[in-house]
Amino acid sequence: MRNAFLALLVLAFVGFGCEREIKNPDEEERYTGPTIENHDVTTLYSDSARLLMKLQAPVQQEFETGDGIFPEGFYVEFYDKDGKLESTLRGNYGKQDTRTNVYYARGNVVVDNLKKKEKLETEELFWDRRKARIYTDKFVKITTPEEILTGKGLTANQDLSRYSIKQVTGKFNFSEE
């Protein structure tokens, strides 16, 4: 009996001797990484059962705020009102701000207008989905069947059907005289 009492006494001292530090949860370091990671993503955007865009990405990470990133790049196809592929957008990295519905593309960004056979190349581009506009303040190169235009800064329709280069730095014609 005496051994049982000593064992209980030792356990009591050990149990009461271990204090747990109570931490303030507001001072704890919070996890800010992705809450969801999807692979081989295909997202379709439509209106009245008509396909408007198709977004594809090898990896999409979503965060607690609802924002997302495409760390391995993304590719978007834009369709006209008749359902025909009109233009494409691709970049090596992408980010989506769900609050403003603006996408950010970086690294070898290319927009192709397939109907006009025009191509925009830049290193950084913003795409405002609500306004169907793309823009950048970086160097741009637009190749058309007749010429190459270069400059710094651009605003355009998302399909590249109409655009304005802010500071034109070069224009090279392909036509022979």
Structure description:
The chain is mainly beta and 177 residues long. It has one domain (34-173): lipopolysaccharide transport protein A fold, CATH 2.60.450. It contains one helix and eleven strands. It has one helix at 2-17, and strands at residues 36-47, 50-62, 68-70, 74-79, 85-91, 93-97, 102-113, 118-128, 133-143, 147-157, 163-173. It has a six-stranded antiparallel beta barrel. Strand 10 and strand 11 (163-173) form a beta hairpin. The mean pLDDT is 87.
Task: Give the secondary structure arrangement, pairings included.
Blueprint: H1 2-17, E1 36-47, E2 50-62, E3 68-70, E4 74-79, E5 85-91, E6 93-97, E7 102-113, E8 118-128, E9 133-143, E10 147-157, E11 163-173
Q: According to CATH, what is the topology?
A: lipopolysaccharide transport protein A fold
* Alpha-beta content class: mainly beta
- Count of individual helical segments: 1
Largest sheet, if any? 6 strands, antiparallel, barrel
Q: Strand percentage, roughly?
A: over 45%
Q: Give me the CATH superfamily.
A: Lipopolysaccharide (LPS) transport protein A like domain
- The radius of gyration computed from the alpha-carbon positions, rounded to a whole number of angstroms, is 28 Å
Strand order of the largest sheet: 2-3-6-7-5-4
What separation lies between the terminal Cα atoms?
114 Å
Order of helices and strands: HEEEEEEEEEEE
Would you state the CATH class?
Mainly Beta
> Low-confidence segments, ≥5 residues, pLDDT <50?
none
Mean pLDDT: 87
User: How much helix is in the residues?
Assistant: under 10%
Backbone shape: elongated
Question: How many distinct folded domains?
Answer: 1
Instruction: Please tally the β strands and state the result.
Output: 11
- What's the architecture, going by CATH? Sandwich
Protein name: LPS export ABC transporter periplasmic protein LptC
InterPro entries: LipoPS_assembly_LptC-rel, LptC
GO cellular component, one term: plasma membrane
GO molecular function: lipopolysaccharide transmembrane transporter activity
